């Protein structure tokens, strides 16, 4: 996934670059004393030596707080979906382990989970040649999901699986597309040194007829139309309720500016990805038309693992503050907006009249958010500064397609990250969710990395209903849904799953599972095009909506959460 660098709270400590630490003798004595005091309160501890996760476990592991809400209006209910494993459909287009999946799906259903989300890989379905689609394995999967009684969120995954945080399998884009790229590598995103990224097609070829006479946009459109035709029974039955449209690497609307397979490590600023011949030509034409023919693409923005101050572009009084820098960043981010708008328009036409929602995912790039340059956001295509909103134009673009803004890193807190990374996930989430609500669109989200602890779940619960549950009607602010990443044996371990079930119940505002909650209206045609001038008016910064200090639907006691946080500060992976 895109949003990385959670700290040592049991998740990818190595990504953060923290050294292994040993508790001092004094600290061990203090810890043992505190442990004895907590044991008297019937609080126990669990330490997984493989992951290093040490957790304070309240009695029965599912103690919850908050009001009893049997009479709470259904409008407080936030549906919960679970992302399936990346290779639930194998690279050779086979639905393997059906018996195992059926057992796991039943457990999810019994836990009150509303549905599943699954990548529908372009590299699997259209692997055999242009326009040759094989949906059979996905049909088998969807039949099982429908049988169990779960809803489906289907991702149109026009990207490679592999190369990003959390990718443990490799599924390339179709071989026939890669073959075209052998002769014309400029169809791929390219950094300043000429390194190509084959994870997805460059947005620069959206309208270039380079693929057996088709443009990239036509490829995506044909794929989605074929999906509708071949999955019509699931769409008509209401089993598929959401189509998430892949718009870039990891399925997200962004440039592939921070790719592990190219050497990026947290918290590197990443690199601009606009140096293929098509992007170069487009930029030069745009600069000339605007009377800036002297402008060229940046040559002072550093490399993947630089920090802002090490570069001329992002450092104090850097190029990003000059007229030249502003022109480039506006062009770079506008190209991303137009790319998303065009593909979503095709998605709207493909699924017109279906009872589904369209959604698009945006990466939660939280590192360097508290640096004046917001460098990591800028290289990814989000022109977001302290005095400029880089996310509201995206929300406004989505509004014309009745789209849902799906955001990541909902589980993260600032305190989980090293100070040198200048991370601000809490403020970032608050900003992004607020602009979605201000544009009157649905906002949904995901956790960026798998977490099983109440500390993370409580942060998600806070973001899901920032001002709490309303006993008298709809909450003032509420997310439209949450997709938990991801289904695994570890999630289903008894202690983890008990806590997860409580989390689902709290997302539902303590209401019973409601299978009829997700019933989208027939998708209407996208509204008229929004001019770029109108989209750019949305860059004016406004104050985000206020958030409560804590969720009113807490899992576990404050004491247990405190020890979850404190103990994991010291116990790292072995």
Automatic annotation (TrEMBL):
It is an enzyme of class 3 (hydrolase). One of its GO terms (molecular function) is beta-amylase activity. Gene3D superfamilies: Glycosidases. It catalyses: Hydrolysis of (1->4)-alpha-D-glucosidic linkages in polysaccharides so as to remove successive maltose units from the non-reducing ends of the chains. InterPro entries: GH (IPR017853), Glyco_hydro_14 (IPR001554), Glyco_hydro_14_CS (IPR018238), Glyco_hydro_14B_pln (IPR001371). Keywords: Carbohydrate metabolism, Glycosidase, Hydrolase, Polysaccharide degradation. Substrate binds at residues 119, 159, 167, 361, 366, 408, 447-448, 486. It comes from the Eukaryota. The active site is at residues 252, 446. Its EC number is 3.2.1.2. One of its GO terms (biological process) is polysaccharide catabolic process. Belongs to the glycosyl hydrolase 14 family. This is Beta-amylase. It comes from Solanum pinnatisectum (tansyleaf nightshade).
